[in-house]
From TrEMBL:
SUPFAM superfamilies: Acid proteases
Name of this chain's protein: Peptidase A1 domain-containing protein
Signal sequence region: 1-19
Similarity-based family: Belongs to the peptidase A1 family.
PANTHER family the record matches: ASPARTYL PROTEASES (PTHR13683), EUKARYOTIC ASPARTYL PROTEASE FAMILY PROTEIN (PTHR13683:SF875)
Signal as UniProt keyword: yes
Domain Peptidase A1: 96-450
Species whose genome carries this gene: Brassica napus
Pfam families hit by this protein: TAXi_C (PF14541), TAXi_N (PF14543)
Transmembrane segments: 483-503
Keyword list, A-Z: Aspartyl protease, Glycoprotein, Hydrolase, Membrane, Protease, Signal, Transmembrane, Transmembrane helix
UniProt entry tagged with the keyword Membrane: yes
CDD domains associated with the record: pepsin_A_like_plant
PROSITE patterns, A to Z: PEPTIDASE_A1
Amino acid sequence: MPIFHSLTLMLLAVAVAFAAAITAFASPLKILPLQRAFPLDEPAELSELRARDSVRHARILLNRGGRQSSIGGVVNFPVQGSSDPFLVGSKATMLYFTKVKLGSPPTEFNVQIDTGSDILWVTCGSCSNCPRSSGLGIELHFFDAPGSLTASSLTCSDPICSSAFQTTAAQCSENNNQCGYSFRYGDGSGTSGYYMSDTFYFDAVLGVSLVANSSAPIVFGCSTYQSGDLTKSDKAVDGIFGFGRGKLSVVSQLSSRGITPPVFSHCLKGDGSGGGVFVLGEILVPGMVYSPLVPSQSHYNLNLLSISVNGEMLPIDAVAFETSNTRGTIVDTGTTLTYLVKEAYDPFLSAISSSVSQLVTPIMSNGEQCYLVSTSINNMFPPVSLNFAGGASMMLRPQDYLFHYGFYDGASMWCIGFSQALEEQNILGDLVLKDKVFVYDLARQRIGWAEYDCSMSVNVSVTSGKDIVNSGQPCLMISRKDMLLKFFSSVLLALLLCTFFTLT
């Protein structure tokens, strides 16, 4: 009988070890292949890109100084923007968008990636003035709340709704007891609707190259009304996927429950038609450097300390890099170019022009500083370094601060892709973010980056170890060594437990 009892305990312990090992391997991560609304092989006017960015920045900077105070439960975003017909809206032209699935049965939505806002919202089927077609060549979908078996709306008494008053524009309807929201952006566009809870689908790693469909309930916005540029069809998508620092962002919701790690990453492909990958997890790249996030900020702010051109630090007034409620440096995937305050922009432009004065022909084009180049820009233009707190430097190649603007007189014309900021904030846009892995490590409150070819496979780590899954575009590889070590460690622990029970 003791022998049978020991064998039973041994089998049970081994089974527990197997379960623990498999559970450890099954840490979910979400893989989001990205598409680009503005392919780089399609010409675009620099003035149009800057105008588009300025409209977006009006919305970003409305939130400086912390959370907005609410009046009657509604956060009021003052209307700013321009009547310029070339502007297509701060939200309608986000460069990168991806797909998510919501509801039961699941419906797929094309949503814009935005690190400058918090919540995920999609268009509701009950919206009467929302776009019905898109110039991006994608089919638009509408969330059918009554048709989803797992959908439920948030009531005014829900704790999430009361906390939403502190983090987003939330309001309650006395007629139907629904927790609603209303957002107004700097260009005059806006959206309103109500918060829903429903199933969000993602991929979980269960073993070597084995991906299982997983899901979890999340809170998101169901848009019943849109205004301004959000009603236009030229670059319409189904909604916005906010990856901000607020409690209602999908990253915060899933990581707070231990469903995904408190980290997300992206790799934005810069050449051709763009694309890339966005992951709820940590992309592992050699040579990653980190800089701490500035605390108590609404956006992803870093402490930029200095700028070097060709290894020489520029004589920039320290006020250019001050961090406060109205100043600082923001990382923003929704901005095309990069913007420096005047105190930093003027020395930067002067240093670049001086460095190439004997090699290229300077020329002004539509008010932009450009250069006529007869050979590769890598052979003529100097390297640039953005130097951040924590000893982290972002090395920029010429193509990271120059924008190809076509040809003139038989020569290739390249223009400065940095611009003078209209406000007091430096903003790092896609021109410098592309062709790099960026890791937003929320647990350690830091951002890391490293150069990378975003068309290649990437390794992704989650909190349990290096669990990797094939995403198809680009793919994520699995680390067999770490998985085997973890498994055999679990089995060894089980055998030790068995020996202990046998001896006792």
